[in-house]
User: Fold Methyltransferase from Vecturithrix granuli.
Amino acid sequence: MQVYERDHHKIIQADVFEGLRTISDQSIDLIFCDPPYNIGKNFHGRKDQWESDDAYLAWCYQWIDQCLAKLKPYGTLYVMAATQNMPYLDLYLRRKMTILSRIVWCYDSSGVQAKNYFGSLYEPILHCVKDKNNYTFNAQDILVEARTGAVRKLIDYRKSIPTTYNSQKVPGNVWQIPRVRYRMPEYEEHPTQKPIALLERIILASSNVNDTVLDPFSGTFTTSFVAKQYGRKSIGIEIEESYVKIGLRRLEICSEYQGERLSKPLKKYEGGYKQLTLLEEGNGTSLYKEAALPISMQSMC
Ligand SMILES: C[S@@+](CC[C@H](N)C(=O)[O-])C[C@H]1O[C@@H](n2cnc3c(N)ncnc32)[C@H](O)[C@@H]1O
Assistant:
């Protein structure tokens, strides 16, 4: 196990259970769980495939229990899963927590779409709290434009003094947020990176400044990255070294990892994989050096 930490942001490179053991019970305000879905994805060589559905669910129940132990009494848990597995997790969780919302994150097609059945264009998310009478929900921080009455300037005659409809509302449980695509600035090399916009809504709604947010399957560390942008503390667990390196860079914990510069690879259409700066040109030759990182990021792991 390796632990990296800077300014209230901690990265634990470990198996989920080993990582969770290092965290004090009842110390976390918000947990976002986006585990492997048991659908055969390739996480840098680690196969997302259990020997049976039962084995997968037994594993999920185990980390769910461990996460609940880490959550404060008024804490919130979000869990993502494949559509076919979510009913089991829903049944399991509702015995232990209050499920406030069953959220559908939906997106448009990535191009290749099923032709012989209705292709899957959504992922379910459970929003659960330990205490249904006392939990964080910052409705004012996540308002969206109301597209109905307000846009048409309709008057709401149900009110004692009729006024126009509100132009903003709390989002419903169907969230239309684009998936992370290669050409988006936030893209990292990971098969199931979650969008910043998704985590912004979750973190702003269900935590406050200085709260601690935990993500036990961090991947590209989107959760920790967003937590940092909004003044929360973060703990991220991830087993794969290559994804930990993404986290170290995204959270600006260090700029070098075991002698390797942690710079974001250039995309193909940006001209290559290394950021180069032209030093000299003459006699038909050019001398380049790798671009320097900002001083604030020059630290080593
Ligand atoms: C669905 S992805 C998470 C993606 C992440 N939410 C993001 O935005 O990038 C699941 C992650 O769990 C990691 N993982 C798989 N098995 C693990 C384990 N036993 N312990 C810790 N992490 C694990 C995988 O390497 C993968 O990066």
About this structure: The two ends are 14 Å apart (CA to CA). Residues 15-16, 34-36, 43, 46, 190, 192-194, 217, 219-220, 222, 237-240, 243 surround S-adenosylmethionine (CB under 6 Å). The longest helix spans residues 53-70.
